[in-house]
Amino acid sequence: MYRTRLLQLIHQEALKSGYDFQNGFVYRISRADLRFPALWMEPPVLTQMNGRKEGLITYHITLHLLTSGKKSTETEKEQQWEKLEKQVLLWIDNLISQPEIFSIDHLACAPAEFSLTNRSEISLKTEFDICCAFPFENSLNPPDEDLNP
What we know:
Elements: H1 3-16, E1 20-23, E2 38-41, E3 45-51, E4 55-67, H2 74-96, E5 101-111, E6 122-134, H3 137-140
Parallel strand pairs: 1-2
Antiparallel strand pairs: 2-4, 3-4, 4-6, 5-6
């Protein structure tokens, strides 16, 4: 699977759930015009490839789910983190159902102690490895789509 297709799949999942989707290096997040709830995706990192012309390719994915959190109590923060974790698990279920995705492994979700922006949001950092088949005929010519709305 090619990284553009992977970005498209995650972008689609975010939009279906009503999340504002943006991607880029995390140091740029504070300058982004985010609408909550939001999903910030760091660039995928190719970590492994098995095969030459066909086989499996693995990317490490890092996502930041953000929601409004001004003046939230600790109990409210815990409830928001749980809600964000459930959202991630739903997206994982939907991604794994895609025919080109072979597996999703090493899922980790960690609440952020501090805001990533100056908007006092609550955020959850999620990381996982996604293993995809290549070449996959639908991935060879993905539809053109602007990934940064």
